[in-house]
Amino acid sequence: MSKNQLILMMSMVFLWQLMPEMGAVGVIRESPLQQTKEILTAQGIQGEQIQQVIDVGIMSNYPDGLFHPERGMVRAELAAILVKNFDLGVREGNGEEIILRDVPRNHWAYEEIQIVVRTGIMTVDDRGRFLPDLPVTRAAGWAAFAQAYGVLPFGEGEVARLLSPYQDRGEIPGWGREAIATMVFEELINVNGSRLYPDRPITRGEMVYTLSQYLAKQQNPGTIPSIPLDP
Description:
The protein is mostly helical. The longest helix is centred in the N-terminal third of the chain and has 16 residues, at 3-18. The chain is 47% helix and 0% strand. The N and C termini lie far apart (90 Å).
């Protein structure tokens, strides 16, 4: 092998090692941390908010050490978050075990799922399944959070007024209208623009925003608004 051939081969090996960091057109990819910062900016949340929910033990990083705010959530994760945030185990007491066809006792969130079902915060389907691995939509996530928080006793006129700024309000399921109106009124959700996108998967970052807003209200009760009434 000639010297020129050896140099060419070494150059190719070097470029091959760089490929995982490069895009299809040779553009250097952003680091995971930089991508996370951009996602946080897009979702209207800050790194401090993520650290807050981690510090209080409500959510945690993935094994790779990153939070991944862009990832969606499944129902088992939501159940665990609600139980921790609202201390639902104390509220629920010692209820009887509910047989769930798809949640065995060795499931990682078995106790939390039992609690949210017994308290009525989350429900099962007509076949007795909790569907722990089902992705959570924004509507379902917000509604469950509102149930744990306490849905405000709005009349239909007030619900309609609170949801009127959003062009896709008609896409909100009937079972979630009052709960989501509560979330809007209490400023527990971060909505940019005039659409709620209730059918989109709720992300971990969006849940962080909701949790952060809730924790702020607990620390400063003066931020909790009074309940409006229909005229």
